[in-house]
Amino acid sequence: MMRLLPYCAAALLALLGAMLAGIAIGETPVAPSVVLRVLANNLWDAGYPVDPIDAGIIWNYRLTRTLVAAACGAGLATCGVILQALLRNPLAEPYLLGLSAGASTGAVAVALLGLGGAALSMSGGAFIGALAAFGLVLLLSRASGAGGGNAQVILAGIAGSQLFSALTAFLITKSATAEQARGILFWLLGNLSGVRWPSVWLAVPVALLGLAVCLWHRRTLDAFTFGADSAASLGIPVRRSQLLLISCAALVTAVMVSIVGAIGFVGLVIPHALRLLLGTGHSRLLPASALGGALFLISADILSRTLIPGQVIPVGVVTALIGAPLFALILVSRRGRA
Amino acid sequence: MTNLNTVNLAPLSCRGLGLRLGGNDLLEAVELEVIAGETLGVVGPNGSGKSTLLKLLAGLLKPSSGEVQLLGQPLARMPRRQIAQVLALVEQQADTSDAISVYDAVALGRTPWLSALAPYSPEDRRIVEQALTDLDALHLRQRLWHSLSGGERQRVHIARALAQRPSVLLLDEPTNHLDIQHQLSLLQQVQALPVTTLVALHDLNQALTCDRLAVLDQGRLVALGKPHEVLTPERLLCTFGVHAHYLTDPYDGARILRFRAP
């Protein structure tokens, strides 16, 4: 246990450093000392004199945004690790199971058709849509193969994604005004600007809980190294573990998508990159991926706010712009090794 | 290691075992009792159900009829973890694209004995190193999976199975894709292992070195017994479709089979 201490300390420091940067950097830069004072004031009534506008921006906008970015990054990267480990497919990622497409359909149905009335926000619609799509994909993969093999799950995911993407496109063309369509597109590409404290209280515990569940099952994930049959020979109840862990990934992803939209590439690239660096053991890979995902998304969020002055780029665009070349690089280097 | 001396029941047995998939009987009414400590070879032409039998015996497939018993208990009612503490299966083609080291790949064999809270102990480390030593693979432990040759991979798979500390070991054509030297040394290593072993084999001359043989033909167990009593010229013609007769090797007096196309 003592060996882990320096790593944990370094990880915590990196995370805190990134968050500090995420809070300080923005359209109106704030000095890190001011950030620390505001945090101290709010956390333990330190009573430093600060500009109330700065204090409001830092505590209610930038901090919440950074916390949610960290939680989403960590959650999505964890889900990526799970799905890649269980499905034994390098292209597996959190949205593979139709979750992002389902979320978009749900959100669009609420925004355009007023489904659910006032009781249902766009986020609520997205969450329900994501779970509905996941349920459909699960049923389809079960129905299509005796064991619900990996290929079946992936194919069912693709079918589900296509179906819900088509539904979304259909709804938008049928009933959206240009203004609405633009807003929806922005949301679909990932958007951290709307998050406040309630989102933090949802995203952070969910990310931590997801990580905890996966760490508890780290040996199960390791046992899938040589495939499902091999895992079964090693004493893993394959079907039950797959269902539990994939459902866990789906829930975490659905929560994240409903809060910030479909931010791509985090769940695909981060696990691959860290697997390359750290090897395959999930006791290291899981926390490292969570940390990597958090750092990646905090950085992407900073870039999304600063690349074009006075304008926010959807964070999903930034993650894709960084993530796609990174992924290509990983693929090339994998080929070199194999 | 589970002590079987006190028990006189078969470590692994099956009654009326059958598997029907898509209207075809892949396996039908197989009755088999593996004797503690023996090496039982399973032979049969392609598609005769060797792999299917092994998967059913390991509990990876659910039988459509009959049942498998492990140490006298119905396999179907045992939790996977408990099965894996008694029985290990080495499949024909288990591969990975992960950059896993040989040591870590063998250490996976400890999975059924570890839990989320039980850490990997010095005792586990000792067992893994012993398994690597048994398979003459200790020097490979730092190597990455994709850098291994076919023979080395097979040895790592078997070492992983041994790290489970099973009392029954199932091997599905372990000598496939190996050159002749590795085939012979691997079979020797397998037969020297202190566990009850059931091994599917392709090469009938290699099968002759087993303690007993089971012959499968189109999903049915058609013969079971001492190798020379089972692999008769009539049986070989009827099941494998080849003419065969025994030659005696003047070098050591061993009897070997020679085949001719019919």
TrEMBL record, chain A:
CDD domains: TM_ABC_iron-siderophores_like. It comes from the Bacteria. The chain crosses the membrane at residues 67-87, 94-113, 119-141, 153-172, 195-216, 243-270, 312-332. Pfam families: FecCD. Gene3D superfamilies: ABC transporter involved in vitamin B12 uptake, BtuC. It is a multi-pass membrane protein. The keyword Cell membrane applies. It is found in: Cell membrane. Keywords: Cell membrane, Membrane, Transmembrane, Transmembrane helix, Transport. PANTHER family: FERRIC ENTEROBACTIN TRANSPORT SYSTEM PERMEASE PROTEIN (PTHR30472), PERMEASE OF ABC TRANSPORTER-RELATED (PTHR30472:SF67). Belongs to the binding-protein-dependent transport system permease family. FecCD subfamily. This is Iron ABC transporter permease.
